[in-house]
Amino acid sequence: MESLHNINLASLLDTFISLSTAFILGALIGLERQYRQRTAGLRTNVLVAVGAAVFVDMANRLDGHAGAVHVAAYVVSGIGFLGAGVIMKGDGNIRGLNTAATLWGAAAVGACAGADLIAEAALAALFVLAGNTLLRPFVNAINRQPIDDETSEVTYSVCVICDRQNQKATRDQLELLLEQANYPISDFDVHPFVQNEVQIFATLLSTSINSEVLDSVVEKLMAQTSVTQAFWSPSTTE
C-alpha cells in the first residue's frame, strides 16, 4: 500500500510540468540535430533531457534539494559515458565531440527542469541552440581560412598505399623519413585496400608542421616502386 500512499496529486502535477518542459526543450535541441543529420538526433536528445529530469525530480521528492543536488552530480558523470559513445576516432579524425557536448547540454536542461527551475531550463536550451546555430557561420568562416602550418595545433596524418607484400618495408621507410624530419608519430593504422594493396596511416603528434617537409617525405615515398600513392592531410574536424 506504500505506492498508493505516495500518490500526491500536487506533486504529480509538478512532476508532469517538469517532464513536459524537459520533453519540449529536449525536442527543440534534438530537432536542430536531426535536421543536420547528426548521430544523436530528436529522440536521443529528448530521452537524455527527460531521463535527467526524472532522476533529479525523483531525488527532489524523496530527499529535498540536497538529494537533487547529489543526483545531479551523478547525472553529469553518467552523461559523460553516453557522450563517449558518440565520439569516434579514425584516420586522424575525431568526430562526434559537438554531438557529445550537445547531449551534455540536453542533460543540463533536463536537470534544471527536474529541479523545478523552468525558466533556467528554457534559458539553457536557448544557449545550447545558439551554440549549434548562431556560431556555425563563424566556425565556417574560420575553417575556410588557410591553415597556418607553424602555429596550428591540428592533427596531421600521412597516408601511404602500397603492395601488401611490402607493407612492412614501406612502414619502416615512412617511420624513418618522419623520424629524420623530427615529426614524432602517435599512432600507426593499417587498412586493407583494393586487391593486394593496403593503406598505412601515420598520425603525427600535435606539433608545428612545415608543409614543405611533408611534401618532401611524400615525394620520397612515391619514389618507391611498391608505393602507388602517398599524401598527407591535416584534420580539423570535431
UniProtKB/TrEMBL annotation:
Originating organism: Methylomonas paludis
Keywords on record: Cell inner membrane, Cell membrane, Membrane, Transmembrane, Transmembrane helix
Origin superkingdom: Bacteria
InterPro entries reported for this sequence: MgtC-like_C (IPR048640), MgtC/SapB/SrpB/YhiD_fam (IPR003416), MgtC_SapB_SrpB_YhiD_N (IPR049177)
GO CC annotations, alphabetized: plasma membrane
Stretches assigned to the MgtC/SapB/SrpB/YhiD N-terminal domain: 19-139
Protein name: Protein MgtC
Reported function: Virulence factor required for growth in low Mg(2+) medium and for intramacrophage survival. May be involved in regulating membrane potential by activating Na(+)/K(+)-ATPase.
Family: Belongs to the MgtC/SapB family.
Domain MgtC-like C-terminal: 156-232
Location within or outside the cell: Cell inner membrane; Cell membrane
Membrane topology: Multi-pass membrane protein
Listed PANTHER family: PROTEIN MGTC (PTHR33778:SF3)
Transmembrane feature ranges: 12-31, 40-59, 71-88, 100-130
